[in-house]
Design brief:
heterotrimer, A alpha+beta, B mainly alpha, C alpha/beta, B: 2 domains, 2 strands, 1% strand, C: Rossmann fold, six-stranded mixed beta sheet, 24% strand
Chain lengths: 210, 482, 166
């Protein structure tokens, strides 16, 4: 079984290599680190000229580590209401306890969350895939909402900062009630007592739940 | 009262604010906390302000911003908005009670205007009665006929002509005031008898439509179409206003969010949106000939879309996105409509009257020194090329001093029976597209800068003649008799 | 002492220009269309012999500006250093507009909140307790229907009182 130090390195590598899509990662500072040697021995990583790569096996293990860490954060923030600096510390300690089986329970308990409190994605586990198979569409884009049906905004998703600003400006923020009045030629919706017209691009960036 | 941006994470925005505030040494009128928040959200102006004031600390500040961002996958703006929203909710929960609502008549009417099935007929109805009947036929027809035909030609002009001839002994100077292009007989007459009533009627309609809250609904109806020409529904205001006064409308393009949209809108306003003065004259010219009017409207409409489409393809920049508040429909108040119309007409008049008078002086001088004869002579070839009588070149030259002024010149030509149906259409198309009037030319440069403003004008100069040439060619070739 | 400056700010289409017209007895264009104030208007007003310069600004949704007009509005707040900032909101949409109030307060600007178009809010079943709001925000809150001049007297009194604290 891996020790804390090794798991942390795997997590860092996941962030650098998988999430930031770098091919490999420079580890000259950690050259003689015991943990790197250990990971190499276990065939989790390959080191060549101070550049480290994740093997397929290592990638899988790193994914699980990240998943456990971010699930732990979710648990602390959403369920135990722990804030501030404690979250990181507590999660770091707790994640190592969440080995096979336990992480699934936590994931189910939290309702298969997609992101950690920082907004980073939580890698999917088997349980999430199962949950997905059951076709239950609770969350949808505003553009897909039925007319005159009351819904609540869940989250906003767009890569475009200016679109985000516009949506924020008109007050279409999570946990706000919303009702779609019209879909064509533009989307018209009501929030509180005011109505807004927006185009499809904006309407597709707002996710709502019924 | 201050929101504590704690957030759910260990590296909170609050820490970032503290660190940035500690690095800010200069004093700003707003709190350092606000400055820090704006910097965290990548606000350009604030960053410039900080760069100007803080010297070396800027790098450290950027460091903090970078680090903070690395802790959040969502944009900082989003995180802040969420926390603010939570704070707002807790305040509103304490201070506001909201009762259930029901869909009233007003809401039903509002939906009718927004549904394309009912909204487009409503739009056509508004255009027909508001623009065609009220501004075109009544304003530009009945009222203009009365003021120009009766008041000016029968009473005022003969009276003033006699007076001037009595007072001013030199014939040359008499011409300046009461000649064919005199300040009074031409400049003042056009401005007061022709343009003033048309513009007034247009602004009455515009003010009423504006106050009902119909325009945002129009914006939402037209957004899809406007997207194809690189604009968004938001551009509907300058465009509709352009039918009143394109100069004023060009100023209002400032409300468009991107530079690209502003350039496209300015271009289209200068090229293919006839202002109310022109519109009035064109309606008067083509009013008796519905077929010619339809062809003119079709051609100008097509050019509007075509040039818009091309410009949007050529100009770099991101696609516009559309968002607009749709205010409740309201009954316009008579007093507001009157004050508003008055204020706009006043603005317009103060701005244009001097130009009209100045134009008269220019024309008088030009005639006297035979400069205009020379330019008119130069224009003759292209004018004849598009199938118009050489006399029309005068109208085009004057058209530069004011677009409507040129249109009014055509109006005179037509009155003397010098133009046939095809020539009418061709000249109306050319004049609608032709160089912006001098006021708009100046506004283009003021709003868009020298390069763009001048570029737009040169393009229009060539485009209008080319388009007119093609229209003339097609109409003559296919033997369309109008 | 120099003339005190008052800046009128707020979301588009909440009646800033109407308020400006009433306070200064000047005319600027008013319409039922968001974003029609392009230019900045300035006027004078006096309350009990004290002169104020009133500045009407284009609409802004947030401190973080998107459009050119929003930038114009914000520059006024930054550069003109107004003695009083009147934030006008559409009362029936208080929830959506209060975020800007919070940002103004956060910037430590001398804010007064005007709940405008109260009549429409009441018709729409929105009941606001201005006193609670005042307590929560710790800034003066005035209710008004500026188009018919309702609440203007109170606003002027509050402006005077607020101005005197300086």
């Amino acid at each position: 079984m891996l020790r804390d130090r090794e798991e942390e390195i795997l997590e860092a590598l996941w962030g650098e290599i998988v999430e930031k899509k770098n091919h490999m990662c420079d580890i000259s500072v950690l050259k003689d680190d015991e943990a790197i040697k250990q990971l190499t021995d276990l065939d989790y990583v390959e080191v060549k000229n101070n550049q480290v790569r994740l093997t397929n096996k290592g990638r899988e293990e790193a994914k699980n580590c990240v998943r456990r860490h971010r699930l732990a954060e979710r648990l602390f923030v959403d369920v135990l209401d722990i804030k501030d600096k404690l979250v990181h510390e507590a999660s770091c300690k707790f994640e190592h306890l969440l080995h096979k089986g336990l992480d699934e329970n936590v994931c189910i308990l939290l309702g298969h969350p997609k992101t950690c409190p920082h907004g980073r994605p939580i890698p999917e586990g088997e349980c999430c895939k199962d949950a997905k198979r059951i076709p239950k569409k609770l969350i949808m884009r505003l553009s897909e909402l039925e007319l005159d049906r009351k819904a609540t905004i869940s989250y906003l998703e767009t890569q475009d900062q200016s679109i985000l600003q516009k949506i924020i400006a008109i007050g279409a923020l999570p946990n706000t009630g919303i009702r779609l009045i019209q879909k064509f030629p533009s989307y018209v919706f009501q929030i509180g007592k005011s109505q807004f017209a927006i185009d499809k691009e904006l309407a597709s960036s707002i996710y709502v739940r019924v | 009262m201050a929101i504590d941006y704690k957030g759910p994470v260990e590296y909170s925005i609050e820490i970032a604010i503290e660190r940035i505030c500690a690095l800010l040494n200069a004093s700003y009128f707003i709190s350092k906390r606000s400055v820090a928040l704006l910097i965290l959200q990548d606000d350009k102006e604030t960053e410039e302000m900080v760069v100007a004031n803080e010297g070396e600390a800027v790098d450290k500040i950027r460091e903090v911003v970078k680090e903070t961002k690395s802790h959040f996958a969502n944009a900082i703006t989003y995180e802040l908005a969420l926390e603010r929203q939570a704070e707002v909710k807790s305040i509103v929960d304490k201070a506001v009670k909201i009762k259930k609502e029901s869909i009233g008549t007003r809401e039903r009417l509002s939906r009718l205007t927004m549904n394309p099935l009912t909204g487009i007929p409503i739009l056509l109805f508004v255009l027909y009665w508001g623009l065609y009947k009220f501004v075109g036929q009544f304003g530009a027809g009945t009222v203009v006929n009365f003021i120009e035909g009766t008041l000016f030609e029968k009473y005022f002009n003969p009276f003033i002509a006699n007076l001037i001839i009595k007072i001013v002994p030199w014939e040359v100077l008499q011409g300046l005031f009461v000649g064919e292009y005199g300040i009074i007989t031409l400049g003042l007459r056009y401005a007061v008898a022709l343009i003033l009533p048309i513009v007034t009627f247009f602004f009455i309609v515009f003010s009423v439509i504006e106050d009902t809250g119909y325009l945002p609904r129009l914006a939402m109806l037209i957004d899809r179409t406007f997207k194809k020409i690189g604009l968004s529904g938001r551009a509907v205001i300058p465009m509709v206003l352009g039918f009143g006064c394109a100069t004023m409308a060009t100023m209002v393009t400032r409300t468009l969010p991107t530079k690209r949209e502003r350039i496209i809108a300015t271009m289209l306003l200068s090229l293919a949106v006839p202002c109310s003065a022109q519109m009035g004259v064109i309606l008067a010219l083509l009013g008796g000939n519905p077929k010619a009017m339809l062809i003119w409207a079709g051609i100008v409409g097509l050019i509007f879309l075509f040039v818009g489409y091309l410009t949007s393809k050529i100009l770099p920049g991101e696609r516009p996105s559309f968002y607009m508040e749709v205010p409740p429909l309201r009954m316009p108040s008579v007093s507001n409509v009157i004050t508003k119309t008055f204020a706009r007409v006043k603005w317009y008049f103060i701005e244009i009257l001097p130009l009209f008078l100045l134009a008269s002086i220019f024309i008088w001088l030009g005639m006297l020194l035979h400069i205009f004869d020379f330019i008119v002579g130069l224009l003759k070839t292209p004018v004849e090329l598009i199938g118009l009588p050489p006399e029309a070149s005068t109208a085009f030259l004057f058209g530069f001093f004011r677009r409507d002024y040129g249109a009014a010149g055509l109006y005179d030509l037509n009155k003397h029976g010098l133009l046939n149906g095809t020539q009418l259409v061709v000249s109306c198309v050319a004049l609608t597209l032709f160089l912006p009037c001098i006021a708009q030319f100046l506004m283009n440069i003021k709003e868009r800068g020298w390069k763009t403003g001048l570029g737009i004008s040169v393009f229009i100069l060539f485009f209008s003649f080319t388009a007119a040439y093609i229209v003339n060619f097609i109409l003559t070739k296919f033997g369309v008799i109008l | 002492m120099s003339v005190k400056k008052i800046a009128i700010v707020g979301n588009p289409n909440v009646g800033k220009s109407v308020l400006f017209n009433i306070l200064t007895k000047q005319y600027v264009n008013v319409s039922n269309y968001p974003g029609t104030t392009v230019e900045v208007s300035r006027g004078k007003m006096s309350i009990n012999g004290i002169e104020y310069e009133v500045i009407d600004t284009p609409g802004m949704y947030s401190f973080l500006s998107i459009t050119e007009e929003e930038k114009v509005a914000r520059r006024i707040l930054f550069n003109e250093k107004p003695d009083i900032v009147i934030h006008v909101v559409d009362a029936k949409n208080l929830e959506r507009m209060l975020s800007l109030t919070l940002q103004l307060i956060e910037a430590e600007l001398p804010v007064m909140l005007v709940l405008n178009i109260m009549d429409e809010a009441q018709k729409n079943g929105v009941i606001i307790d201005a006193r609670i709001l005042e307590k929560e925000l710790k800034v003066p809150v005035v209710e008004a229907v500026s188009i018919i001049g309702k609440g203007i007297k109170e606003l002027k009194d509050r402006i005077e009182a607020y101005g005197n604290r300086l």
